Please model this.
Amino acid sequence: MGERETPTRIVDGPKPKHAQLRDILRRLAEQELPPGSPIPSERDLADRYEVSRITVRAAVGQLVAEGLLTRAKGRGTFTARRRLDVQLYLESFTDDMRKRGMIPATEVLSCDEALPPDSAASALDLPARERAYQLVRLRRADGVPLAVERGWYNPRIVPELRRHDLSTSLYTLIADTYGVQLDHAKQTVWAESADAETAKLLGIRKGSSLLVFRRVASSHGRPVEDMTSWYRGDLYQVTMQLDRTVPGSGPHSAKGGTR
Model:
């Protein structure tokens, strides 16, 4: 049997009218309109399907709650942009976006030598008062700002880092210029609300949801990078495969990774 088609009109029957309209709008958002497209206004939807505006609000509100639609104050309601899965392996943002068929772009906001905070100095195994490279970059895909990265880099392993073009894949640069291949990382993920500076860079409202990743990457046991990335929560999600194993209990134990 083929898939049951979604009705294109609303009829009297056992299924509530708001649920019928919700199904119609879901098909519109998932199959017909590209991400970021406006949907008809409440008045237009009410007239087109001969329902009340209360019914329209109920249907639209459910799809907003599901993340298929998004409201923009003063502008209307739009189909939501598709969320990208954060990859749980050690790969550069540039390579990741290219594999998805998207065009990556990086804006270097700053690169300076500075005293790292104690947490970064410890992660990079630096002695007290030793300076490191602090790099801040804005990452885009197809022109859309996705993430702000603020990282610290070990000057003993990547000396004169700021003399290079840092708007391309940093992992490729480190491998090609310094002969250093990052082969291991530990990553921690948490949720956070966007502060004013990060929100402005990402083109979102202050207080919007962010996914935050702190990654400490190394090469042959030598720490090279301590990077924290703030990703837009409306455009990113994390998917993990979970097996019923106990870490360290045998050859099939799950291993941690990073994007």
Notes: The chain has two domains: 17-79, 84-238. The first helix runs from residue 17 to 32.
